[in-house]
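Researcher: Please generate the 3D structure of the following complex. Treat every line as part of one assembly.
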Amino acid sequence: MEALYKKANILYIPALALFALFVAYPFVDGIRIAFTNWNGFSRRFSYVGLRNFVRLFKDENVRASFWNTLLYGFGSTFFQQVLGLSLALFLDKKFPGRGITRTVVYLPVLISAVIMGYMWYYLLQYDGALNDIVALAGGEKRLWLSSAASAKSFILGVNTLQYCGISMVIYMAGLQNIAPMYYEAARIEGAGEWQVFRRVTVPLLYPAFVTSITINLIGGLKLFDIIKALTGGGPGYTTNSLATLIHSSYFASQMAGFAAANGLALFVLILAITLSLQAIFRKIEVQS
Amino acid sequence: MTRRASLPRGVAAIVICAIQLVPLYITLTVALKPQTDLSSYWALPVRAAWSNFARAVESGGLIRAFANTAAITAASTALVVLLAAMAAYPLARSGSRLNKTVSSFVLSIMMVPALSLLVPLYVLLVRMRAVSTYWGITLVHVAFNLPLAIFLFTNFIKTIPRELDEAAVIDGSSIYGIYYRIILPLLKPVTVTVIILTSVAVWNDFQYSLYFLQRPSMRVVTLSISSFFATSGSDPHVAAAGAILAILPVTLLYVFLQRYFVKGMVDSALK
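Model: Done. Output below.
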């Protein structure tokens, strides 16, 4: 049988060919480009050694984008877990309106993030819906997206709300997989609501935590569409993530070599974070 | 549950839904108002200005954009299903060292953010004369959506008993015969999941399209809508109408086929 299955290996060759061409080759070529001062279109360029990489560490915009990337990644992940788990616990019991609530919370997940960003723009612009409420409450209208701190909070918030549905459905599935006998046993032992949650629900939801955190974190670290739609990286360069910075240094500033080095940095960052996360999860698993 | 206890739950549910629906509601009221209507975005229009939708379709070239998006989505999804269903069979059945290496290579691609490859990928497509072509963008979508699909198909095929394959071999069937006549017909449930995940991802894509579809006539829906917002002086009401039209197809599909959408997400996450 094993010999027969070997003949079936031909079946994965088309997929591998595609990966070789569109992933492996560009990856290697990207490393080469990162060592050049190429502008993205000219035929002439020269190899400049580590200059692009040195610049990564010196450039203020890169530094800001780096911290923003971490903020968007870890910030959204944190709030998405809080919201997602609360919603899942809330919707775990049957009540009228439960189905509709789940439908509505999950809906934004399926809407294109860039369009979601534009829809929020109607709330956040100066003549927008949010300022109408502020004015009604007697406050002063504000330009919500023109200061870095406030713009970043809204990017974080919009991303959190849009994708908290993912963690919600993962936690709902996780909760449904917990057999009722565990709860019964805990209650017989005299455990209170909080103790049941802490000692039964949380440990048994562990696989759901791992999946949901991983998915949300990778999504948040790659954040691009919402930033483009809400601020375009501005004011100045203050709200860029590494992803949007790569885009603008390539297409707007014509620094292909630098953008390629930046791409490698993003790749290494995401790889390092996912791998250490997996190591942490494994350690927790061993301990418990 | 008693009635008394379900009242606060109901109120909480309404608040949660309201928060999630606010951007949609605001966009809808803006879309339905004429430019002369200066009332708050919260207020419903006195009379619906349906002409905004017609103007969005016309000035945004939305019919062309929908056709482009539909064609790219259909082609990418079909190729992903075909290539992933093929690749998954040997990977699920044979645990040879080679195949284990291939499997972990595929899994590792899932972690590569496509953006980190933007520059070299763009260079490659320029060299292949694939920028602003349907086949270029389609192949890029296929390459980056394929790993998850292979992963899902592989996990599913592993649950199909090997005895089926063995029985067919005894009956004189070739390995490809087994794959075609026995395995393929059993893959329907996971195929539905892969179709939904891939087509939603491709339909909603903005990044790849922004890089690789630069000719205006090849614009997809997300690019059309973003051009409304990026152009200063364009009518916000028309832009809102465009945004509503853009999200309508997926929203409607989701409302009717909700079970499959959520199941697809959960399956891809928990397996």
